[in-house]
Structures are given as structure tokens and as C-alpha cells.
DNA sequence: GGCCCTCTTTAGGGCCTT
């Protein structure tokens, strides 16, 4: 059996478990012959693995330590070296001055090691995660009654066939055409697919962009409350399941975070966090008509990359902020019990 | 609907998505 202890120390445990489960399931699917287990090592466990108890009890750390075994490439070896340095420096001294100096030096090196470790983590995670921005145009705002009428996706990695765009025939009259310009006549055409026909194509597109054994991170503005519930509803209506390795990220909280830190002088003022406002804030030129799916996806892709740069968010930070279908289902159950929905 | 903010928390208004 091959043991893989992954570098995920900065992720909350629930996210670690969720992400690790995805990776494990994917790895087993792609490499059925291999037996792989994931273990998260505490400092105590790692200490015992390294050959006994720590001699110094003066300094203790409760952070989750990581170790990397059996992974190919430079990243794995660097990770292990970093951990060794950390432990070798935990030496007890009796001279107060020396303690202070040693501690400072140790902290400096530990901080450097942590930065290195985070970079390695980010690189390894980036190899596993496919980031796809997406946007839906719908026949209204009610996720229970309204339907998706247009969909667009864009793999941020770019390359050939990195975008996906289509109108969707909802088999109903579109009453909000003034908002997006999509009319009933436009979607009521033989060549426009219905959602039940589109979902397999959508799944195939995402699969084609997915890295072997990796996960997909689908990004949308206000996705938690709009696009993702709409998408889930469409899948449910047509008896499809959202793939277990799909994670979702809402850029609205990121926009709030950016504006909080960048526009301190306007904290008390009303700041718009809409996608178009964020586009203007970053001086990104509009491409196509706003409120059409592909145009909004183009905008979102650029805004998203600018925001992650501003917030210094590595891939691990994105995973930390992501959510899955099951997270929304739990919330929806609570809500529906409290207030029955009406169309 | 969920989240955030404030003249709040025993609440209410506004934003964001179409």
C-alpha cells in the first residue's frame, strides 16, 4: 500500500476531509490497481514516525504538521526537508538571551519554511484543480419556478476548446427578455438544446477540462445564492447528479473582501459589488453585451484573477472558500422546513 | 435566499443574481 500524506495544513479540517476524499476517490478511479490511503499527520504522529519523542518540551506546536512520502518530483523532497529543519531547531536552551535569539532565528526559518511549504502546497493543488468560471441567464430570479435559458463556461487555463456556450430551450415563455435580450423565439428553435440534452454535453465538456484525479472548481458571481442552486435544480429536474468532484466558489464574498481592504475611505459609503462594478473598478474593458452569459463569463474570469491577486489567494485559499452541493442541500432543507416555497 | 451592515441582536433594509 502506498501512503500519501498531503500538504494541506492551512485548510480547515472539514475542507481537508472533503478535498482529500475527492482526491482519494478520483485517484482510485483513475488508478484502480493502486491501493492508496490518505492520512493527516499531527506533530505528535510525525515525531513518532521520525524516531521517537521530542526531547524538548519547552516549545510545543499544535499546528498540523505534514509529511510527504511516495510522491514523485522536487516538491515532495523539499517538503520533507522543510519538516526536518523545523524539528531540528526545537532545542531547549537555559540562557534567557540565547533563548530569545534562538527563538527569533527559529521563527524566521520556520516562517520561511512555511512560505516554502505553502508554495509547494499551492503548486501541488494547482496541478489537481481545474478552475472554470461560469454564468447562467435565466427566465427569472425564482430558482424553483424559473429555468436556465443560456449557459457559458470558460476554463481559466485557456487553450483549445476552453469555452462552452449555448442557449437553452426552457419550453416556456421568457418574460424578462428586456434584461438579457434573449427572447422566446431565440430559444424556441430546433437547434437549441433542452436541458436534458445539454447536461451530458456539459458533463463531457467539464470532464475534458478536468485533470486526471483532480477536482473542478466552478466559479460564479453570487454563485452560492443564484447560479449554483439554479444549476442543481436543473440537474435534479432532469434526473442527473452533480459530480462529486465539483466544488463551487462564489466571487461575491471575494469582491466584498477586496473592496473592504482597498477602499477603506469608502467603508461607510454604499459600494456596489456587482460584477459590472468590479469590472469598472479594475478598468476591464467590456466584451460583448453585459448580461449575456459569455460576456459575463469573460468579465468574471478577468475580475476573478484580479481579485485572487489582490487577496494573495493561492489555490488552497480558493479550496478553503469553496463549497459543495451537499453544503447547499443542508441549508435548503432547513429553509424549506421554515418557509415553504411558492411560485 | 443568503449575506452584510447598522441608528442591531427581541430587527430591518439593502445588495446580488435574472
Q: Can you lay out the helices and strands and say which pair or pack?
A:
Layout: E1 2-4, H1 13-30, E2 36-38, H2 43-49, H3 74-88, H4 96-128, E3 129-138, E4 148-155, E5 163-167, H5 177-180, H6 184-187, H7 195-209, E6 215-220, H8 227-237, E7 246-250, H9 251-262, H10 275-281, H11 293-310, H12 315-321, H13 325-338
Parallel strand pairs: 1-2, 3-6, 6-7
Antiparallel strand pairs: 3-4, 4-5
Helix pairs in contact: 3-4, 9-11, 10-11
The protein binds one DNA strand of 18 nucleotides through residues 135-143, 146, 149, 176, 179-180, 220-227, 229-230, 252-253, 255-256, 270, 272-275, 291, 331-332, 335, 339.
Rg of Cα set: 24 Å
Biggest sheet overview:
5 strands, mixed
- The low-pLDDT segments are 1-17, 33-104
Principal-axis shape equals globular
User: How is the largest sheet built, in terms of strand order?
Assistant: 5-4-3-6-7
Amino acid at each position: 500500500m502506498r501512503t500519501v500524506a498531503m500538504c494541506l495544513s492551512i485548510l480547515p479540517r472539514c475542507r481537508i476531509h472533503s478535498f482529500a476524499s475527492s482526491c482519494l476517490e478520483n485517484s482510485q478511479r483513475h488508478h484502480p490497481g493502486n491501493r492508496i490511503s490518505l492520512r493527516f499527520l499531527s506533530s505528535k504522529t510525525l515525531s513518532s514516525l521520525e524516531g521517537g519523542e521530542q526531547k524538548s518540551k519547552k516549545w510545543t506546536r499544535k499546528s498540523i504538521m505534514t509529511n510527504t512520502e511516495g510522491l514523485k518530483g522536487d516538491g515532495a523532497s523539499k517538503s520533507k526537508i522543510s519538516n526536518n529543519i523545523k524539528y531540528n531547531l526545537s532545542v531547549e536552551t537555559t540562557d534567557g538571551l540565547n533563548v530569545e535569539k534562538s527563538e527569533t532565528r527559529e521563527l524566521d526559518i520556520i516562517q520561511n519554511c512555511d512560505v516554502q511549504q505553502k508554495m509547494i502546497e499551492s503548486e501541488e493543488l494547482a496541478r489537481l484543480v481545474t478552475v472554470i468560471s461560469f454564468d447562467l441567464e435565466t427566465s427569472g430570479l425564482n430558482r424553483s419556478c424559473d429555468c436556465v435559458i443560456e449557459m457559458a463556461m470558460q476554463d481559466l487555463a485557456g487553450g483549445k476548446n476552453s469555452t462552452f456556450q449555448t442557449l437553452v430551450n426552457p419550453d416556456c415563455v421568457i418574460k424578462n427578455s428586456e434584461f438579457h435580450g434573449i427572447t422566446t423565439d431565440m430559444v424556441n428553435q430546433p437547434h437549441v438544446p433542452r436541458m436534458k440534452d445539454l447536461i451530458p454535453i456539459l458533463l463531457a465538456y467539464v470532464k475534458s477540462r478536468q485533470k486526471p484525479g483532480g477536482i473542478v472548481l466552478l466559479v460564479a458571481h453570487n454563485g452560492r445564492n443564484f447560479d449554483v442552486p439554479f444549476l442543481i435544480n436543473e440537474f435534479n429536474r432532469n434526473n442527473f447528479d452533480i459530480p462529486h468532484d465539483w466544488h463551487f466558489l462564489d466571487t461575491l464574498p471575494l469582491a466584498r473582501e477586496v473592496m473592504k481592504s482597498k477602499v477603506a475611505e469608502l467603508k461607510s459609503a454604499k459600494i456596489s459589488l456587482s460584477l459590472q462594478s468590479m469590472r469598472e473598478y479594475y478598468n476591464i474593458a467590456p466584451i460583448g453585451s453585459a448580461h449575456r452569459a459569455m460576456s459575463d463569463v469573460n468579465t468574471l474570469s478577468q475580475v476573478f484573477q484580479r481579485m485572487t491577486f489582490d487577496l494573495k489567494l493561492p489555490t488552497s485559499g480558493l479550496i478553503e472558500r469553496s463549497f459543495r452541493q451537499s453544503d447547499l442541500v443542508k441549508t435548503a432543507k432547513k429553509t424549506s422546513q421554515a418557509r415553504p416555497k411558492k411560485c
